[in-house]
Amino acid sequence: MTDLPVFGAGIWHFATYKDRYATDGYGDPVGLLEQIDRAGAVGDLSVVDLNWPFAGYDGTLDDVKAALDRNGLRAIAITPEIYTRDFVKGSITNPDPAIRKRAIELLHEATELAKDLGCSYVKLWPGQDGWDYPFQVNYHDIWNLALDGLRELVSAHPDINFVIEYKPREPRVKIIFPNVARTLLGIEKIGLPNLGILLDFGHSLYGLETPADAAQLAIDYGRLFAIDVNDNLRGWDDDMVVGSVHLVETFEFFHTLRKNNWEGVWQLDQFPFREDSVEAAKQAIRFLKAVHLALDTLDEEALAAAQASHDALASQRLIQRALLTSMAGLEDA
Amino acid sequence: MTDLPVFGAGIWHFATYKDRYATDGYGDPVGLLEQIDRAGAVGDLSVVDLNWPFAGYDGTLDDVKAALDRNGLRAIAITPEIYTRDFVKGSITNPDPAIRKRAIELLHEATELAKDLGCSYVKLWPGQDGWDYPFQVNYHDIWNLALDGLRELVSAHPDINFVIEYKPREPRVKIIFPNVARTLLGIEKIGLPNLGILLDFGHSLYGLETPADAAQLAIDYGRLFAIDVNDNLRGWDDDMVVGSVHLVETFEFFHTLRKNNWEGVWQLDQFPFREDSVEAAKQAIRFLKAVHLALDTLDEEALAAAQASHDALASQRLIQRALLTSMAGLEDA
Amino acid sequence: MTDLPVFGAGIWHFATYKDRYATDGYGDPVGLLEQIDRAGAVGDLSVVDLNWPFAGYDGTLDDVKAALDRNGLRAIAITPEIYTRDFVKGSITNPDPAIRKRAIELLHEATELAKDLGCSYVKLWPGQDGWDYPFQVNYHDIWNLALDGLRELVSAHPDINFVIEYKPREPRVKIIFPNVARTLLGIEKIGLPNLGILLDFGHSLYGLETPADAAQLAIDYGRLFAIDVNDNLRGWDDDMVVGSVHLVETFEFFHTLRKNNWEGVWQLDQFPFREDSVEAAKQAIRFLKAVHLALDTLDEEALAAAQASHDALASQRLIQRALLTSMAGLEDA
Amino acid sequence: MTDLPVFGAGIWHFATYKDRYATDGYGDPVGLLEQIDRAGAVGDLSVVDLNWPFAGYDGTLDDVKAALDRNGLRAIAITPEIYTRDFVKGSITNPDPAIRKRAIELLHEATELAKDLGCSYVKLWPGQDGWDYPFQVNYHDIWNLALDGLRELVSAHPDINFVIEYKPREPRVKIIFPNVARTLLGIEKIGLPNLGILLDFGHSLYGLETPADAAQLAIDYGRLFAIDVNDNLRGWDDDMVVGSVHLVETFEFFHTLRKNNWEGVWQLDQFPFREDSVEAAKQAIRFLKAVHLALDTLDEEALAAAQASHDALASQRLIQRALLTSMAGLEDA
Prior knowledge:
Chains A, B, C, D: It is found in: Cytoplasm. The structure is a homotetramer. Chain A is an alpha/beta fold. In chain A, 42% of the residues lie in helices and 14% in strands. Chain A has eleven helices and ten strands. In chain A, the strands form two sheets. An eight-stranded parallel barrel of chain A has the order 1-2-3-4-6-8-9-10, surrounded by five helices. In chain A, helix 1 (32-42) links the parallel strand 1 and strand 2 (45-52). The first copy, chain A, starts with 6 loop residues before the first strand and ends in a 10-residue tail after the last helix. Chains in contact: A-B, A-C, A-D, B-C, B-D, C-D. The interface between A and D is large, with 53 and 52 residues.
């Protein structure tokens, strides 16, 4: 077996959740340090993505660093919370200039923290930037506000990368960066080298894309800076455990990454609402190891030949042979 | 113009909301009595549906009654909260018998309160009863647990009606009562006269149904006890303001009700996350009055003739003539 | 390995196709006898479902029987073509009584042929019975026409079974039998023992159902008479090769059948528009054999325990262990 | 009322159709000249888009010109048939270089015809260019084949415009130009001034876009060369009559065009499978005239103010006032 990839997770994987019905939460709150300890308990994780501000945490940054250290974890990214109460009508596209300003300030602060922690990138997820109703916004204006805000932020920090995590919808009914191509259009218009894409497999899937195709496009533009994986039923961002539904397309996604020598982190963005979060991560990584093993055994030459003639049956046969034997070689299965 | 219908709303229309991102809420919390006052401020509402337990309310029931009175409102229904933390893996279908028991007890208590308040029905919305993952549950068992639980509850209270509000998904990835036909199958199997359906227009729409057809079926089985209206983009339960997207199908839905002499409440189930809740209700009712007026002017005889030959163009012309002139006759538009 | 199931296919699997764009067809027309020979060439098929009238065939029935014989095939079903030009506004629900009459006559003739060929059932697929536009039909009337037509047909032939193949849409925008529950409601209302359901896995999947749950419900009502399998992307009836996308849910579907000792044919309903049809069937059966093998190795006791507590992670682990090793034991993979 | 726009239609609107079930067609074939006469019979159409080769037509080009003349019609575009039998595995992206060459040749010929007829543009709709199965194609290669083919074609004809009509899927399960942003990325990469977009409202709608936003983006890139309208249920390209479902979003789409002083043709791309095609066009234009009238009465200043603060309720009220009174001022309603 070739070397395993580096595994990571969003720290929220180890929190508990609320939604609009269970407003009292899907379990007792889990503090930030405990979330980090849970991430450590998974055993295969090396990096985590941290939300900031640290919601509900009143300890010191040093304690956070210590918790990461004792669990063998590194902060790979900061995800600024630009989607909480202050920003429910938008962050960098908020109709109120004062709130736009506050959003940019928060983003600057988060960026400084990311640098302090030695992160690889700052993750921008503008989930509240968009619209809900027909005729609600002027599309020209909101798009330009988004690009202006990004340009201002990203150009001020040439020493760190930024990624946009696109998503079709939720919480807004429509989000300004809904798919890979629209996001690349924006990035190219802005024209800065340190702004790229975090491609969330599930967002791509329920956004009508073929995730492997989206990844290839972002790679061809030199903009695939990071990825997240999870699963869903193609209608919503269910954030289910990787490999619970779309085995073949997950395999194809990682195949595309390997073929392009993409060597980033295999990162989990799962919401185990009703599951043990440590076990959910373990189950995901068990499947991802099987995928990794299947990539080792896949007959790449035969696959390339099949693809050269668009032979769907030949390629299906090859990939099933690799995927449906993959756990036979896995100790932990 | 014929007499206007009775308008109502779920009291949560006038609350503020949380979701999994804005966990600090879309605004300051609004207490129960203030919610009732806001419902009163709409001006056209006569009835409300109350959640119970009264979350975050520590006043007396008498104060609730007084608030309803001073706003000219009546409680038409109680919606027991069988989808909060205790029940995130299900209420009447929870795998743990102790939690199933607790759910039934809560439902009995809610029913007593409904009787005390003179409600027309108790609304059952088993949004946490279902599954998320393939192979998670035994489908035979969970379905029978649901029917057993309903039979036990409903048969114990022959003096009040119960309604099931079906919904395809959310918060569970799949809910046990996802559509009108499945719900009717269950109701017929249970065989009690006081168990019916609350048809939520939006649930029907994003569940691939034609809402007017679903209403007709429920009526033909004598089980359409109540309705809720709102709107969405056919992919999720967006709970947008009525008439913001699906004007024609909303019109058809109410046309079906009138044709069958169905005379229940026209009730709002909207979640104005980012809007003023009183204004959102007013906007909805303004549109519903236009619908009501359009029903008055629609040429029913010509429509029946068009439908007898499945003539889509003739019926489109007739209904556009009624709908696209409807606000010309409305003072408040 | 336990005994393999009986494999079958719709004979159209081996035809060529047209659609609204490639009106000149996806290849040269393939005559009925050649379709049968192709079915024989697959090697693992024992039964076929035949469309009738035999479109474009002017030979004798004896020649058809001879072709079946020489390929070791049996006709398991007749699928009457009640969706061609005469019936584009409906068969048994056509607004024109003369066409409804013609549809019933064609169905009687098809039934006689099915008996002559020793078929197990007549398959009813009312794909043109439904509506396209809001307000186009009277939903009460069209539903009752459907039930009346079925009652008339099915009661006249107590010596053979009939199945309804439900489907959400296509070619009509909405079809009268869109899902399992609505179809069961109709069947129960008709109340005849020889009317059941053919559950097409793909129809169930893109109709927002969980196919295994739909199968369980039909079994619990004693109405699961037949099944078809294929695959799609959950948004349309793509009729792709089985196992190309939804491996886990296909596995779960067959697991439900085995658990209930359901012993019918594993039947293909694929449309290999651009693929070699014999190879497409072979690829499908290769995967289905892996599923069969996985069912043999699945730890049923542990799965039942996991399901009793709705433990999604435990069940995922068990089924991945079975599925992702299944081809290791398959000679032909 | 301001001057009416120019109305147009794809000539196929007046043909009859086949699909994979009604392979004998939804009616008797209608010859090209008769299609043109039907277009003329609508009364409000000024231009048509012609498929080429003229399927089933063996008359002269002069006869076609004469038919257009006598009906007061002009050919605004040629749509080359690069999606029939020869091209079912792709035209400019076909894996077979010989077929790619043939596709390009056909496109050159079609372009010459377009010039001869004085058309405004050649419409490229690569509906067979894409993939159906995971792992079927190399995404990098197929995308570059598409761009290469377009560059070769479009650069050879600087004297006429070309448009790409993007579409998410059908007939391929995935099409290479699925949405506005991906198409703009390709166009910008090619970098020729005479290549733009034809935005089909229905494609945009069921592709998860907001059509008005897609139009704005294409306009902002100077690439919105043409539009088509129709309607659907957001899940498939139903090509229903304009205004039968999405009144508000159709209104918003045309509002965006007017606001930007976009002055192209309002063109129909409807497939009235079971309707009289002349009546279907008349019904569409009746609605479009109401939209035009509503645009005249809409309070633009108030709307701009509402949009400046993202006030969904205020904008809903304004647009309902305009839309739901629009037919009161229409003679023909």
